[in-house]
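User: Sequence for assimilatory sulfite reductase (ferredoxin) below. Tokens please.
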Amino acid sequence: MNPAAPTDAPARAGRPARAPRPNGQWAVDGTAPLNHNEQMKQDDPALDVRRRVEEVYAKEGFASIDPDDLRGRLRWWGLYTQRRPGIDGGRTAQLEPHELEDEFFMLRVRVDGGALTTEQLRVVAGVSTDFARGTADVSDRQNIQMHWVRIEDVPEIWRRLEAVGLWTTEACGDCPRVILGSPVAGVSAEELLDPTPQIEEIQRRWIGDPELANLPRKFKSAITGHPSQDVVHEINDISFVAVDHPELGLGYDLFVGGGLSTTARLASRLGAFVRPEEVPEVWHGVVQVFRDYGYRRLRTKARLKFLLADWGPERFRQVLQEEYLHRVLPDGPAPGAPVGDADHVGVHPQKDGRRYVGVAPVVGRVSGEVLAAVADVAEAHGSRRVRLTPHQKLVVLDVPADEAEDVVAELGALGLQARPNLFRRTTMACTGIEFCKLAIVETKATATRAVAELDARLADVQKTLPSPVRLHVNGCPNSCARIQTADIGLKGQLVTDDDGGQVPGFQVHLGGGLASADREEAGLGRTVRGLKVTADDLVDYVDRVVRRYADERDGDETFAVW
Ligand code: SF4
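Assistant: Structure tokens for assimilatory sulfite reductase (ferredoxin):
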């Protein structure tokens, strides 16, 4: 078989066929780099930049950093330069990278499965306080992101994190990123399977493996054994979702090729059943398919979803089985409709009789101080474990049942609510113009204001809604806050105001959502032609839409259906 993707060179009558343009697939075209990024990765393995940080850059400072390391290889260790303060969104596309960035970094700590001990949480809090001006955001991929980090401090930060088993290895870059895992893995009373051993095995064997450190682009993974399907599996490059096979018992259904950004695609089921102990091997096989056959010519076409779109699931499964696994996977069933809330906010029973308490910060923003205080609250009640969720929430595990309400109150005093109002619970926002070099508009503060106002204005209305309305706010088209999967998704851009001026605003996507207890199947939100709102009008717009939904819906019609 020839697994090369279709090419764009049909023969025209009377003319010789043009030679097909290579897609940069290593297994088909060879490994000659076709662009600067590929060249950079081949010139010097990205993971090797760590040695230069420790031996040169941390001693000689920001100005000593090679540009390919600065904007390229440092990402493999979780470091991005951050946006210079004061540059408005209208200039984002006009300035050169060195004009947009300042000498500080965003540092991303990968937290596979979102699982932290209170000891680890204290170390993260200390790094935030000592080296990141107290910043700490819980991302929608179970990472913690800090800002204002100086290159001089990075070796000490690595030393502190790694001393407690935390890493920034491959937190960014063209490599296997953090593995999303059910935040209540191993504890939830409703769980079908605990994916923790598989997450730990993948991390131990392959995160930081040079053989997988030069992928065409980022590779996102997710695995859950919880019936709420709590890891946004439809929009990862690979996902495993627990199913009960009628003959083979409990295992996982395999999804491949999801992703958002500017070309959104929901993941495809391969129809294959994966036993729990086979998950690491199958994960490794799929990463290798991506490494060898993924498109490297155009960075905008390099995610696995583009290969999947061209090959289709049957061919992908065939290549995976024949060339990488060397055996056939059994067919398996699709997961049923999700059951329960995937954000885990509130007080819930554990299988051992204790409780877990999920709380909502506002759009994932916390701080070193708050994280240290969360560790204090947890430990005061005998807990040593905290989890982060893919919905920018935190969960304290192992709370004695008769102390759960005390924990709710103590976390509430930190601004972390276990029983939040609608928009506090459902609103997510990406980093935006405060720190992101690609941003066009501000997001975190805008969304924070919107949450406060909407929850106040719609206090009565929201109690009558049959299902939540999810609001996601993005600072540019890249969709880090998953706008296409929100009931109301807002994509940051400059818009024209009533006076004809260009002002920060958003294009509106409506009706998207991932599979959830109130929505059987995922669907991508649609842009409504010409529907844009200014940042100043955002609250009024959402207020109007939600009131109309409340008034016009038919019975229990969800927002997406309405
Ligand atoms: Fe930055 Fe755009 Fe991602 Fe927001 S969506 S964090 S603005 S790249």
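The first helix runs from residue 26 to 29.
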